Amino acid sequence: MKSGLLLQFALNGLIIGTLYGMVAMCFVLVFKASRAVNFAQGEFLLVGAWLCWGFMSQLGVPLWAGFLLTTVAMALLGALIQAVVIRPLIGEPVISVIMVTIGLSVVLRGITLWIFGPEPKSFPGGSGGATVNLAGLNIEAVYLWGAGAAVIGMAAFAWFFKYSRLGLAMRATAFNQQVAQSLGVSIQRIFIVSWAISALVSGVAGVVVGVVNGISPGLSLFGIKVFPAVILGGLDSIVGAIVGGIVIGLLENLAQFVDGEYLHWGNLYVVAPFYALVLVLMLKPYGLFGTRDIERI
Amino acid sequence: MSTGTSRRCGDFRTRYAQEMTWFPSPRSAAACAIGLGLLLLAPLVLKNYGLALLIQIGYLGIAALGLNLVTGFTGQISLGHAAFFGFGAFASAWLSNRHGVPVLLAMPAAGVLTALVGLVFGAPAARIKGLYLAIATLAAQYILEDFFNRATWFTGGAAGANAQPANLFGFVFSGDVRYFYLVVVAVVAMFGFAANLMRTRDGRAMVAVRDHYLAAEIMGIPLARYRILAFGLASFYAGVAGALMGHYVGFVSTESINILLSVQMLGMIIIGGMGSIMGSLLGAAFMVLMPEAVEGLFHALGLIGGGADKGLVYLKEISIGLVIILFLVFEPEGLAHRWRQTKAWWKLYPFTH
Predict the structure, then answer these.
(1) A127 vs chain B: nearest CA distance in angstroms?
(2) Is residue A292 a part of any domain in this protein?
(3) Does residue A231 lie in a domain region?
(4) Percent of chain B having pLDDT more than 90?
(5) CB of B195 closer than 8 Å to CB of B69
(6) A274 in a domain, yes or no?
(7) Predicted complex ipTM
(8) Which residue of A has its CA nearest to B151?
(9) What is the pLDDT confidence band of residue B88, given thresholds at 50, 70 and 90?
(10) What is the pLDDT of residues B47-87, one digit of tens each?
(11) Which residues of A touch B274 (CB under 8 A)?
(12) Looking at the predicted structure, is the pLDDT value of residue A282 above 90?
């Protein structure tokens, strides 16, 4: 019985972890391209989920159409944010960029609270009811879809960065901005595109989580969980983000299992990722796959 | 900091001692004294509500100054300042309730306890910086919040803790007027200490660590020590400020100690000016008064009543984020810089170039 429960938690962790990995990937994408850290990543999820909810409940469109509309809207939002808020701060110290994205997260959260209210809402047409029975374990069908979408998304990312012209330009920019610029890559376009992709994919993740658990302001905590994942994986490694996301998802669910079965502390699973984060920072600050900053004088 | 333009004509500095005065000029010292005198007379004019706002500005200003010491002067961003602020409030209530420590002693003692906690969480600062440190302090915020909820013996758990009013030889600091003077004394002491710190070897070392840490290390400044020291000092300030808050409100709950308060404190030093002592107070004043102004605007536009005032609380939150963004984009050096420019403009008045 207990091993079955453990397996269930582990599987949930794996699926949630894949979603964490996807959001963490967006974070790393923006960081690699423009050296900007996005503390508003969680709010992107929140805005994406609410947008999709709004399209569905106000316009009455089905889920797939709302989903498509959300991707378009989120890409536009990401591009807009980069152009209006982030661009003036290029070249400013890292503290300023951190602070401006924190300010952004407060604004986005306030706006969603204002428009949609603080109460959790579920997607029209019922949410997460259907479960799939897989070898004796119950998995919510939407999570399975979400995990599938995340894997497809990751494969698409891999293709994009390896073969497409824009992806290669983005990698070149991440490697050395000046050289890329002198070879004719438009840095501004790269920045805008990276923010747009990041917002889009986060919005998609937000919709997936929202469909399963319902949407509430607490959804933005999902974005905070991204930090343990990226620190574990290394800030500038896409592979690291995915691995880190999965590990953090597993850790969170295992903590919930241990807590529920043995310790009864209550909310260990909320803080466990942060303890892991502090531990990683103390032992291996650049994470598993991150590049060590070597400073030359 | 180039204050050259606001100095009087012919005011050349020929000795090091002249560079190390508390105030940039005798005039600014006089202005500060007059300002303080007017402040002491404030209870004669202001009603309780105005005094409550001033008290709030006072203790938040102390907390912001602490954050400015670590972020503005030493260049280490901290996203967990509110957690230390809350720790100070709980520690002071705990010391006075459980251990019978007189409140006036419990406040600085709470500061010391908070400083110890800050040293623990500041330890990663010895190895990491910038973004990594920001994330580490974010983790500290969540870990401490969880601790507050769990440690019932210390905080009273979700129910919160009561804090008694301060008293000195039977004189009870209850009511806004008496507490106001207590806060003024604390503000003067804490700001004086910080201003003095910046005149010393340690203060200059902190600024050197911020400006160019490699150069600072080559000159023999131990980076790790000053980074951790700055964290401890900032936590001390946050702890004292939290204790002042706790004994003023009379009640400390875990709910108000959230990440938004940390963001607000960072907003204060950005608005006031990073690396400016007076700016910390200006920023705190701005952050306290802005929501009031937003509310006043709401009233003036006749939006209260109906469905609109439901959005007011969110609008206040949005305005906090918005001013942070606007200041970073348009005035990254904050109000202190604007103040200096205003002074320079008056001094150079007919010939503005």
Answers:
(1) 28
(2) no
(3) no
(4) 16
(5) no
(6) no
(7) 0.82
(8) A265
(9) very high
(10) 778 888 999 999 999 999 999 999 888 888 888 899 999 99
(11) 95
(12) no
CA separation (Å) from A286 to A90, B75, B127, B129, B328? 24, 20, 11, 12, 28
What is the residue-averaged pLDDT of chain A? Answer: 82
DSSP B102-169: -HHHHHHHHHHHHHHHHHHHHGGGGT--HHHHHHHHHHHHHHHHHHHHH-HHHH-GGG-EE-PPPEET
Please enumerate residues of B whose Cβ is less than 8 A from a Cβ of A: 71, 75, 77, 79, 123-124, 127-128, 130-132, 134-136, 138-140, 142-143, 146, 149-150, 214, 218, 260, 263, 266-267, 270, 274, 311, 314-315, 317-318, 320-322, 324-325, 328-329, 332
Closest CA of chain A from B284, distance in Å: 16
Rounded to an integer, the average pLDDT of B98-115 is 87
Q: Which of A31, A104, A106, A263 to mutate to test the interface with B (most CBs of B within 10 A)?
A: A106
**Identity at B20, one-letter amino acid code:** M
A117 is in which domain, residue-wise? Answer: 2-216
Looking at the predicted structure, is the pLDDT value of residue B167 above 50?
yes
Is there a contact between A267 and B146 if contact means CB atoms under 8 Å apart?
Answer: yes
Chain A residues inside the 8 Å CB shell of B128: 281, 285
Q: Is residue A267 part of a domain?
A: no
**What is the helix, strand, coil percentage profile of chain A, to 5?**
75, 5, 20
B-chain residue closest to A231, CA distance: B132
Token pair listed for B189? 């002491």
Q: For B133-152, how does the pLDDT look when each residue is reduced to its tens digit (9 = 90+)? A: 888 888 888 888 888 888 77
- Per the structure, the count of domains in chain A is 1
Instruction: Examine the pLDDT at B4 and tell me if it is beyond 50.
Output: no
Fold observed for domain B45-347: ABC transporter involved in vitamin B12 uptake, BtuC (1.10.3470)
pTM metric for this prediction: 0.86
